Amino acid sequence: MDLDADILLTKYEHFHMLLILFMILPWSVLPSRRAPARRRRAWGRAGPLQMARRGLNYGETPQWMRKLISEKGVGGVPMRHGVARPMQTNAHDALFKAAFSQVEHAAGELRQALPPELSSRINFADLRLCPGSYVDEALKERQSDLLFSTSMGEARVLLVLLFEHQSTVEPLMAFRLLRYMVRIWEHHLAEHPGSKRLPAIVPVVLHHSERGWASGTSFEELLDLDEGARAAVGEHVPRLRFVLDDLSQEADEALKARSMSAFSRLVLWCLRHAREPEELLAQLGKWLDLMNDVRRAPNGVEALRTIWRYILATNERDEADEVLERLLAAAGESWKEEIVSAADQLVERGRQEGLREGLQQGRRHMLLKLLGARFGALPDAAVAQINAADIAELDRWSERVLTAPTLADVLGEP
User: Fold this and answer.
1) Please, what is the Cα angle at 39 between 35 and 40, to 5 degrees?
2) For a designed S-S bond to 124, which of 107, 309, 355, 370 qualifies (C-beta 3.0 to 4.6 A apart)?
3) Which residue from 206, 352, 350, 182 is spatially nearest to 267, judged by alpha carbons?
4) What is the mean pLDDT of the chain?
5) Is the pTM of this model over 0.90?
6) Contact 176, 239 (CB under 8 A)
7) DSSP per residue over 284-326, as a string?
8) What pLDDT score was predicted for residue 329?
9) Residues 174, 182: contact at Cβ < 8 Å?
């Protein structure tokens, strides 16, 4: 192919890229062309909750706006009467980490869960959060983890706080934890290549479900042996019993009486009733004294916004506006501004997450189109590789797509 043909092809491919990009713009986040420009600009500045505070009722909004809210969502996140609904498991994970990634709250939970003879030996004043996560990739949707380091006498010990936030019990939890601990030890040895000993790891599982934990808590119970055979091999197989804090079996009064920070107790109460949104709203008045304690503490207002966002995000049985109205009624007038502010943040967070997801999907779609135009039908392995890629990889491959001679050169390592 001569130089003029090369230039023409390059121009065509650039035009093709721009055309595809134009076709996949996230139109779902834009108001209808039929709406007057003034109202479209106003919509861009104010969400449904802000409009509600200005006196504009959802039912009185223009038809084009109601259709946009109910059908399109914000940033690709489906909405019900104006409030975005993030994934429920993400809400559990966010609340768990908002509380217990702070060592003062984690220390209270660990003191409560650990056996007294073990807890009394641990120096909680030396508790530190360790970076990273060691949960299986396949289990990230149902488990969250926090790893802490502290001292017990002269030795360093690691404390794992694993939060199981699914409605079903994991019967192989002890096995999962054993694998989890091995990954931590492998990481430790990689950082300390000359080490001949391993730090002790104590696993604590925080659980909530409708019926409570109904499986074993030791690794030996998983072995397919009768009692006699299990006793005979006892010293020759791994032995592990994890600490279980089952919120499902604890009454609200017992949770409220725990020797923990007020915010930690509120978080545990929310997690316990996550699948009973009616109960959360009905019992809210009994916990307002604790909420006032949190409110007076440093950063207490922001901590409470986390609670309000969680209640709004996890109640999927009722319309969001109805939940917000009932929450305001249960909490009282003094909490109105903070609750509405938390709801606004929830909407904005849902919009941003939707925009990020839409951007990644758009880039993926554009790359597949361009690769197909250059190299013909793509093999399934290449499509799977692109669908699993993150934004950084998609950007890198997109930069190569017009100059790389083969598909392998586009998708290969740098």
Assistant:
1) 70
2) 107
3) 206
4) 75
5) no
6) no
7) GGGGHHHHHHHHHSTTHHHHHHHHHHHHHHH--SS-HHHHHHH
8) 74
9) no
pLDDT of residue 352: 55
Measured CA to CA, the distance from residue 179 to residue 172 in angstroms comes to 11
Q: How many angstroms separate the first and last alpha carbons of the chain?
A: 28
- What is the number of other CB atoms lying within 10 angstroms of the CB of residue 247? 19
Q: Are 164 and 177 in contact (CB under 8 A)?
A: no
Residue with tokens 């080490």: 195
Nearest to residue 372, comparing CAs of 357, 387, 360, 382? 382
What is the rounded average pLDDT of the residues 351-380? 78
Convert 85-117 to b/e letters by CB count within 10 Å (16 or more is b).
bbebbebbbbbbebbbebbebbbbbbbbbbeee
Rounded CA-CA distance 309/280 in Å is 13
Between the alpha carbon of residue 218 and those of residues 39, 118, 309, the distances in Å are 62, 17, 36
**Residue that the structure tokens 């004043």 belong to:** 125
Q: Are strands 155-164 and 200-207 parallel, antiparallel or unpaired?
A: parallel
29-35: long-range pairs with CB below 8 Å, 24+: 29/72, 29/74, 29/75, 29/76, 29/351, 29/354, 29/355, 29/358, 31/64, 31/65, 31/68, 32/64, 32/67, 32/68, 34/64, 35/62, 35/64, 35/65
| Best mean pLDDT range from 93-107, 134-148, 354-368 | 93-107
The span from the CA of 404 to the CA of 414, in Å, is 12
Which pair of tokens denotes residue 163? 């939060």
DSSP label of 74: B
Of 323, 397, 307, residue with least CA distance to 360:
397
